[in-house]
Amino acid sequence: MKTKSSGDIVFAGFVYVFLILVFIVTFYPFWNILVLSLNSAEDTIRGGIYFWPRVFSLSSYQQILTDQEILNGVKVTVARTLIGTPLAVLVISLLSYPLSKRDLVGGKFFTLFFIFTMYFGGGLIPYYMILKSLHLIDTFWVYIAPGLMNVFFMILVRTFIQQLPGELDESAKMDGANDLQIFLKIVLPLTLPVLATIGMFTAIGHWNSWFDSYVFTYKPELKTLQAVLVKILNQYQTSTMVSDAQQMADSAKRLAVSSDSIRMAATIVATLPIVIVYPFLQKYFVKGMTVGAVKA
Q1: Which of 79, 81, 262, 288 is the most exposed, having the fewest neighbouring CB atoms within 10 Å of its CB?
Q2: What is the DSSP letter of 219?
Q3: What is the separation of C-alpha 202 from the centre of its chain, rounded to a whole number of angstroms?
Q4: Would you say 197 and 83 are in contact if contact means Cβ atoms under 8 Å apart?
């Protein structure tokens, strides 16, 4: 058995110390948010809470989970994620499959056409006007339709499909299968890693999205969880600038929960679902991203 030299031991120790420091730097902010959210509202105002709750309390979560505005935001966000993610994966995969065929007539033109849209756009105002002309403004489908196509994800899936052996298509066609049957029975099962990857990224995008809800919707029942969270953050950040009467009205509406505790609890509620789902799809990420990104 080969013995390690002192240099190898020192280098390994340096690597472990570095990784531990990276873990602390990345994990502690989330841990501190959780600790603040679990601390008593009145005690949080005193400050000085860093590693564990000083006075354990679930008052902030009780306020979050009983607020109708937040509950409605959760429903809208869950609905757009569950509907928008599979539809986007379906549209991207349906487009990627024909563009992966090197003998497709005009295939290079269509690929360059889509890539062009990655670098050039009309801006927010023309985009708003397009959505308005399509009657998507202030509707639930403004969250779904614009996100059905992602050119970068399409390139990943297309390149992934191109890595598959061409003999699979040839043997299937010899057995009488058409392109749709090949796509459904052969291509889709084999592209599961990259589809899971883009599906997860798309779901995270839907879950964390707030700007489209802020700009393209006006009805309170259409506001997403992240948009409500932004509203809460802005509300408490500007609480020192409003009148005493307004502060009393806000406190009567939101109950006696400190600004830090309510913000941290809302952040945990908005982040926790993604944290729970991510480990189950993590095994697909490396293969999906590396194989799909070998070449464009």
Answers
A1: 79
A2: -
A3: 6
A4: no
